[in-house]
Design a protein that fits this description.
It contains eleven helices and ten strands. By secondary structure, it is α/β, with parallel strands linked by helices. The chain folds into two domains: 264 residues, Divalent-metal-dependent TIM barrel enzymes (TIM Barrel), CATH 3.20.20; 34 residues. The two termini are 18 Å apart.
């Protein structure tokens, strides 16, 4: 199944009905609900997404709808974290995630994507991005900056990882009762949770639970560009847990462009993706025609060889 995320027009179209109509015109099989939707948009979308004759919802991100007193433009910045060392904040993040899970059950969505939080460390991403932009990616100085940033993360990551474990323990129990899958996603930045090794740790701890892995090709590409992890390693290591994939292209270090409008090699990427997992195009940039071209590209790459 190939879906389109509401990220594309949630900020541009405040009316949920108009938002739905614009997404429907793009020709995708399903719609994924992003964390950019307001409560009003969600309520307006419900009757259309629950209409059997319309395109269905297939996945939802925490927190959806957006948190109170949070603007749509701030939705990408987590205000409360499942990794917080403040127990009250962490419990609030759990409560809000459960609300998203309840919305998923109401709308017959079976997969909830989780943002797990981050390690509370000074963001040193600029150390890598500046060298990358100056064309220094292959030099020793770049490698030293990557090591410096990740070493700072290691000094604080254990406590935050333990906090995430406690959060996931509760959320997995709820997901089992609600007959949902909760999906942990690879993130773009080194200080965010999970990093490559932490995905393995979490599945080791919760093997057999309703938890699955969700792969974002743009996040993986950004980590590779910044020297953190080869993009193909995520899928090779966690393929058995994979339930869905987010598709968007990169223009240098800028994500969320339509597939085919950036730097990524889509022919090669699709050879790594199992045919039976959900695929969601998640973009911010691109007019209607460009998005439809991206859909056609993805559809052509999803076809079995004997159908081409």
């Amino acid at each position: 199944m190939l879906a389109i995320s509401t990220m594309w027009n949630a900020l541009k179209q405040p009316d949920g009905a108009a938002l739905f109509d614009a997404l429907k015109e793009l020709g995708f099989e399903a719609i994924a609900l992003s964390r950019h939707l307001t409560l009003e948009q969600v309520e307006q979308l419900k009757p259309m997404l629950q209409d059997i004759g319309q395109i269905p919802p297939c996945a939802i991100q925490n927190f959806c709808p957006i948190l109170p007193r949070t603007s749509q433009s701030e939705a990408e910045t987590d205000k409360i974290l499942l990794s917080s060392l403040d127990n009250d904040e962490r419990q609030e993040a759990i409560r809000r995630t459960i609300q998203t899970m309840e919305l998923a059950v109401e709308m017959e969505i079976t997969t909830v994507l989780l943002r797990l939080g981050e390690v509370d460390t000074y963001d040193r991403s600029y150390l890598m991005t500046e060298l990358y932009e100056y064309g220094e990616r292959e030099f020793e100085a770049f490698s030293r900056k990557v090591t410096e940033a990740t070493e700072w993360r290691k000094r604080k990551e254990a406590k935050h990882r333990d906090a995430v474990m406690r959060s996931l323990d509760e959320l997995n129990e709820r997901a089992l009762k609600m007959e949902l899958h909760i999906a942990i996603e690879n993130r773009p930045h080194y200080y965010q949770i999970p990093n490559f090794d932490e995905v393995g740790l979490f599945f080791g701890e919760f093997y057999g639970s309703p938890m699955r892995y969700w792969h974002d090709v743009g996040h993986a590409a950004l980590q590779e560009k910044l020297g953190l992890c080869w993009s193909h390693q995520w899928l090779e290591a966690y393929n058995e847990h994979l339930i869905g994939v987010t598709l968007h292209d990169m223009q240098e270090l800028e994500p969320h462009h339509p597939p085919g409008a950036g730097d990524l090699e889509w022919d090669e990427l699709f050879t790594q993706l199992p045919s039976d997992v959900l695929k969601v195009v998640e973009i911010q940039h691109g007019e209607t025609e460009t998005v439809m071209q991206a859909r056609e590209l993805c559809e052509s790459l999803m076809k079995p060889q004997d159908e081409e």
